[in-house]
């Protein structure tokens, strides 16, 4: 709504209400006094051209103009939160998932949005600019919702990464165990199993992984049958998975019971796997 236009209309309408009010002279003088009546202006004309009245209208207009400027400045105050609502969340998460991120990267981004959420909640819910009171409650609520969405999407991505790494490690133990405990039928199979055992026993070659979290898990190959890639240290891998779930718990993510069970069984599975390697040897 154009407030200046509205005030102009209201001012004219208020003054126009006296247009129908006759001058006392008009009532008392008979019809023969038309000439005398014409020498006196109506109340509407007098009030419309009254200097003090015009000054009041000008003051009101100047006040509204100054208020509009202040309102525009106040809107600019909220621009510092613009990236929260302006950035395409899904597109950003897709790009995020295609890169290799450390656990610290996730922690920093999650902490950033959590802190922004806290700062937004500390903002004033109402603000007075001259004669205009601004209700910022809905704006604050919307921004807090955006912060929640950012955290949820990042945590979902981190949870997916942790779950896939957890499943991958369990599958690695299971696949190699199955391969090494199955009786070979041919010399080629025997040689393949011996090679698999030697590669698996080589230090730092138990499971895929690195110092960072690869969230593009679907492009990683798993160990199947007689195939074993150069692999990273299992203890470090297990520790990273545990750190992922520790962070998820810190940010109050509800972990699936199956994942919780898999996490609890991870170290026992690793010990059992080590025993199996000794038996296979």
Describe the biggest sheet?
A: 2 strands, antiparallel
What is the number of strand segments?
4
- Overall pLDDT metric: 83
| Overall 3D shape | rod-shaped
Provide the helix percentage. 55-70%
Strand fraction: under 5%
Coarse structural class: mainly alpha
Order of helices and strands: HHHHHHHEHEEHHEHHH
GO molecular function, one term: dynein light intermediate chain binding
Protein name: Dynein axonemal heavy chain 2/5/8 coiled-coil domain-containing protein
GO biological process, one term: microtubule-based movement
Domain Dynein axonemal heavy chain 2/5/8 coiled-coil: 231-281
In terms of topology, how is this protein built?
Blueprint lengths: L2 H14 L7 H5 L5 H5 L4 H6 L2 H27 L4 H5 L2 H9 L2 E2 L1 H20 L3 E4 L2 E4 L1 H45 L5 H15 L11 E2 L19 H17 L6 H8 L1 H15 L1
Antiparallel strand pairs: 1-4, 2-3
Protein name: Dynein axonemal heavy chain 2/5/8 coiled-coil domain-containing protein
GO molecular function, one term: dynein light intermediate chain binding
Pfam families: DYH2-5-8_CC
Commentary on this structure:
InterPro entries: DHC, DYH2-5-8_CC. It comes from Aureoumbra lagunensis. This is Dynein axonemal heavy chain 2/5/8 coiled-coil domain-containing protein. This protein has 281 residues and is mostly helical. The protein has two domains: 1-80; 155-280, no CATH class. Helix content is 68%, strand content 4%. The chain has 13 helices and four strands. It has helices at residues 3-16, 24-28, 34-38, 43-48, 51-77, 82-86, 89-97, 103-122, 137-181, 187-201, 234-250, 257-264, 266-280, and strands at residues 100-101, 126-129, 132-135, 213-214. Strands 1-4 form a two-stranded antiparallel sheet. A two-stranded antiparallel ribbon has the order 2-3. Strand 2 (126-129) and strand 3 form a beta hairpin. Helix 8 packs antiparallel against helix 9 and helix 9 (137-181) packs antiparallel against helix 11 (234-250). It is rod-shaped and about 135 Å long. Residues 207-211 and 214-231 have low confidence and may be disordered.
């Amino acid at each position: 709504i154009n407030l200046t236009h509205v005030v102009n209309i209201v001012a004219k309408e208020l003054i126009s209400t006296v247009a129908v009010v006759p001058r006392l002279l008009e009532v008392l003088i008979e019809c023969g006094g038309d000439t005398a009546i014409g020498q006196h202006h109506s109340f509407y004309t007098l009030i419309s051209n009254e200097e003090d009245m015009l000054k009041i209208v000008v003051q009101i207009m100047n006040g509204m103009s100054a208020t509009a400027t202040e309102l525009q400045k106040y809107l600019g105050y909220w621009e510092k939160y613009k990236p929260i609502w302006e950035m395409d969340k899904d597109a950003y998460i897709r790009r995020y998932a295609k890169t290799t991120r450390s656990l610290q990267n996730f922690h920093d981004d999650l902490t950033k949005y959590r802190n922004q959420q806290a700062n937004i909640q500390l903002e004033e819910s109402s603000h007075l600019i001259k004669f205009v009171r601004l209700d910022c409650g809905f704006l604050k609520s919307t921004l807090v919702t955006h912060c929640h969405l950012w955290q949820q999407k990042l945590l979902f991505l981190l949870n997916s990464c942790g779950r896939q790494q957890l499943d991958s490690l369990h599958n690695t133990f299971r696949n190699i165990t199955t391969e090494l405990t199955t009786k070979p039928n041919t010399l080629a199979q025997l040689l393949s199993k011996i090679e698999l055992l030697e590669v698996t026993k080589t230090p730092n070659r138990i499971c895929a992984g690195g110092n960072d979290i690869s969230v593009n898990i679907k492009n990683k190959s798993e160990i199947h049958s007689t195939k074993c890639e150069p692999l990273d240290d299992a203890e470090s891998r297990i520790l990273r998975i545990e750190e992922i779930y520790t962070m998820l718990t810190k940010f109050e993510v509800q972990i699936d019971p199956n994942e919780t069970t898999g996490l609890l069984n991870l170290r026992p599975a690793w010990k059992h796997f080590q025993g199996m390697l000794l038996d296979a040897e």
